[in-house]
């Protein structure tokens, strides 16, 4: 485990608890953090320099939870030394870096996985099944709100920090590349990084997605709405009792036989289903999935390829922000 700051200890806890993984070593430049986690997990050796991890023959894989600017060089070194790699979100800061790591992992026959943890939430898994089995019909829109007070980051804007979660879920549900991106936002803290932002993504075929991300909201909101031609769904991770609801609500339209220009509209209000979900911690499920992929040589759900697609949207959104909300054509985007 490389990086024992905000997210690292959560990964450490799940790696140590899983019967499919062994916590071999923990690594951090801060001696106090290293000592604190070392006391909790005495069987894991404490390492101050990452080079020792990469050259150790008894280590099969590494988890990286360091500042995003270090993800690329650390993941590259790990792959070059034949290690499987799990990288905390956001994957990397540049599309070319993401593509290079994917190619390197493929060349070395190693697993490269991104910590898009919400893909492993039971509610998202059930939502994906509803989409794939046609329960919602053809998807028309995704409307997501992910806002709270803090944690304001110092190295990435609010889209890279928060909207990355929504984009990974959307990518998982939609299963195709986005066509264009528009983003608006403002930086209010004097560091030039947007802390409030609105992101709009066109996926073609009538499907649009909107993500509102905000570090300054006095309340915490997690609403992820998916609308289809048959039904709609609401995923609310803060509602422990009913994290997913599927609504047989919608609008049915037919042509008015008396007029070529008029459309007859009927509103449909049917049942609301709150599916039973397994009480599985998403992070635990993600760690066990990573272990299974390393063992069996299978492609992760949150693969490096998915990481490339998400980074491409985020990089284009950052360019759109810099250009005052100018639309960015993703089909021609290579930055």
Number of helical regions: 9
- How much strand content do the residues show? 25-35%
Sequence stretches where pLDDT stays below 50 over 5 or more residues: none
- Gross morphology is globular
**Structural domain count:** 2
CATH fourth-tier homologous superfamily of the largest domain: Dihydrodipicolinate Reductase, domain 2
- Return the string of H and E elements: HEHEHEHEHEHEHEEEEEEEHHE
Main-sheet strand order equals 13-12-11-10-6-9-8-7-14
Oligomerization state:
single chain
Task: Determine the CATH topology of the largest domain.
Answer: Dihydrodipicolinate Reductase, domain 2
- Terminal Cα separation, in Å? 30 Å
Q: What does the average pLDDT come to?
A: 94
Helix and strand composition category: alpha/beta
Fraction in helix: 25-40%
CATH class of the largest domain: Alpha Beta
CATH hierarchy: architecture of the largest domain:
2-Layer Sandwich
Q: How does the major sheet shape up?
A: 9 strands, mixed
Any overview of this molecule?
This protein has 335 residues and is an alpha/beta fold. The protein folds into two domains: 8-115, Rossmann fold (3-Layer(aba) Sandwich), CATH 3.40.50; 119-283 and 311-332, Dihydrodipicolinate Reductase, domain 2 (2-Layer Sandwich), CATH 3.30.360. 33% of the residues lie in helices and 29% in strands. The strands form three sheets. A nine-stranded mixed sheet has the order 13-12-11-10-6-9-8-7-14. The protein has a three-stranded parallel sheet with strand order 3-4-5, sandwiched between helices. A two-stranded parallel ribbon has the order 1-2. Strand 11 and strand 12 form a beta hairpin. Helix 5 (95-108) runs antiparallel to helix 9 (304-322). The protein is globular and about 75 Å long. The mean pLDDT is 94.
